[in-house]
Every structure is written in C-alpha cells, then in structure tokens.
Design goal:
It is built from 16 helices and nine strands. It is α/β, with parallel strands linked by helices.
Length: about 350
C-alpha cells in the first residue's frame, strides 16, 4: 500500500540519471559521445554545485528533451519508480509548460502550445497499473516575461482538472527587480481561485516578505527558521506549510551538511509550523523520498514522531488529495472493518 506524499517535485529534475543516459544514448549523438559510459554521466549529473543558479542550469538539459513526443516516455518511468520504489500515494509535479514548447517558435505560438503540454502531462500520469493521485503545479519563471507568466496563471485556472496550483521558480535571487510584478500575479491568481506556493526563502538571497501573504505553502522556506524565526508565529497563524527538500541544500551549496536542518525542524515544531519533507529533484539527486526520510533520521535531524508528523502534514496540505485522512489511516480503517466482518463470520 502506497503511504507517502511528495508535494515538491520538478518534472525536469525527476528523471533518474540512468533513464536519461539511456535516452541520450539512443537519441542524442552529442551527449552519447560526451558520456559513452554511464558512471561518468551519473557523476556529472548528480554532483554538488556551488550555487543554486549553477544547479538550475541542469534543468535546461532535461527541458530540451521533454517535448510533446517524449513526455509520456519520461512520465511513465517516473510514475513506475515513484510507485514501486517510493510508495507514493500522491504526487504534485511542477514545471513551466512554456519551456517544453519548441524554442524556434514565436512567444505567442509557444503560449498557445502550453495547453497541449499540460494535457499531455495530465494524460500521461493516468497509469492504471501504478495508481498514484497526481496533479500539476504550473511554474511562473523569474526569467520569463510578464506576458508568459500571466498566460501560465490563466492556463492553470482554465485546466483545473489537471492543475492544482501555481508556483514561481527560476532562482529566488532573481525576483527582486520584479517583485511588484510577481505580487500582482499572485493577487491575480487568488482572484481566479487558484491555490499557491512559491520558491521563497530557499537561499539567503531569496527572502522577500512581500510575497509571503499570497502563499498557502512555501517552497523550501528554510531561511525563515534559520534567519528570520520571528516570522514563524505568523506562518503558523496562516497555516502555511514549508516544503523542505533536504538533499537540495547540499547540492546547491546552501547548507554544508544535513544536520544544519535540525534548527529548521526544531524551530518549526516549537512554533507549530508544518513541514512536508519533499524530494525537489529526485533524479538530479539520485535520492528517493524514503531515503530523504532515512537520512534525516540517521543523522538525528528528526525523530520518528517528527517524521510521522511531517508525513501527515504532507497529506493535510496537499492541494489535490481528495480524502480527509492519509492513506495509512484509511488502510487501518479498512483492516478494522475486515476484522469485524471476519469475527462476525466466525461467530
């Protein structure tokens, strides 16, 4: 029985390195020649970077091959791994649809094609043999023009059967010069009834208090308990949840070791702020969600009770989970009902 929820996973960073390498071997002569053997590609793809911007450059490597034709191929393998190896019952996939359209087309042509990308992703996630509830979060991007980002918000509102929320991504240090613009876009999203999250307070350079009131969840948010703990009571009052992605902070150079997250968890628990533990880019990290859990436990960042609280929080704050309880509670109720029925039959 799948038991877990991942609320923060990027479509571009979700492709595990071996699957991506095999794709390049078959379809990309340049990459195949550059990495003739798998170990060399894995080392390149998963190694730590010095900054978040350097790390995000890896997304472009995958975005260019996630096209209308190939998205079903990558998504099927993503779902298969998530169900079999991660025990996921619920997954929110986030991405910028504009970046999956052909870059030789005009901006207006690419905007017109975004709905097709969302539909392809939505249809590809309906895999009967791996029953995971999957919804999409569409990402505005810090390096895309206003017209494209507004079109992404409009698209999210028009395709609610596939899309559960919007986000802003692209490196939080790049928001500053366009902060008023993003505040306006989030206000517009709220007027359309959209749910919201956003990459914020991930690095010391991405701390914009002006955006906080417009978010139902905070993508990463670790700098709040680390550097601005005075904000935590308000975060708790607004019932905002932090989407904490442990391995990311090592891969981007944001933290030097995992144990630095202990302050994040301790201060959030003390303030009554929920945390959902997520993978962010499971493929780039070559680390699946249960290993994120295990790493936090074995390095004494959290204990088992805190882990359970985070797992429950993930379902409680999931934008499209259709039940009042997490699957473990549903399974317990089912087993109890079966036990009662069996007892009645035996009597």
């Amino acid at each position: 029985m799948a038991l877990y929820a991942d609320l923060h996973r990027h479509l571009g960073g979700s492709v595990v390195p071996r699957i991506l390498w095999r794709y390049f071997k078959r379809h990309d002569v340049e990459m195949a020649q550059r990495f003739p053997e798998y170990p060399g590609f894995e080392e390149f793809y998963t190694r730590e970077r010095k900054t978040l911007d350097e790390y995000l450059e890896l997304h472009t490597l995958v975005e260019k091959v996630q096209t209308e034709d190939t998205l079903p191929y990558f998504i099927y393998r993503l779902i298969r791994g998530a169900y079999i190896f991660e025990n996921l019952a619920y997954l929110e996939l986030r991405y910028t649809p504009y970046l999956r359209t052909p870059d030789h087309l005009s901006q207006s042509e690419r905007i017109d094609l975004m709905a097709n990308i969302v539909a392809i992703v939505g249809q590809a996630t309906q895999v009967k043999e791996y029953p995971i509830i999957i919804s999409q979060i569409l990402c505005m991007h810090s390096r895309l023009p206003y017209e494209v980002n507004k079109a992404i918000v409009d698209l999210a509102a028009s395709m609610g059967h596939y899309v559960c929320a919007i986000d802003v991504a692209g490196g939080d240090s790049h928001y500053a010069e366009r902060l008023e613009e993003f505040v306006g876009l989030y206000q517009y999203a709220h007027s359309l009834g959209l749910k919201t999250t956003g990459h914020l307070y991930e690095t010391p350079h991405g701390c914009y208090r002006e955006l906080l009131p417009y978010l139902q969840r905070i993508g990463h948010g670790i700098q709040i308990p680390l550097k601005y703990p005075e904000l935590l009571p308000e975060i708790a009052r607004l019932n905002q949840c932090l989407e904490v992605c442990p391995t990311t902070y090592l891969k981007t150079g944001t933290l030097q070791n995992l144990h630095q997250l202990k302050v994040v968890f301790d201060r959030c628990f003390e303030a009554g702020v929920d945390i959902a533990i997520c993978t962010d880019n499971a493929g780039l990290h070559n680390v699946r969600l249960p290993f994120e859990y295990e790493n936090l436990l074995t390095q004494d960042v959290i204990d088992f009770d805190q882990l359970q609280a985070c797992q429950d929080a993930a379902f409680r704050h999931a934008f499209a989970w259709p039940y009042q309880q997490p699957p473990a509670s549903l399974l317990t109720g089912l087993l109890q009902d079966n036990s009662t029925t069996l007892s009645q039959v035996m009597a």
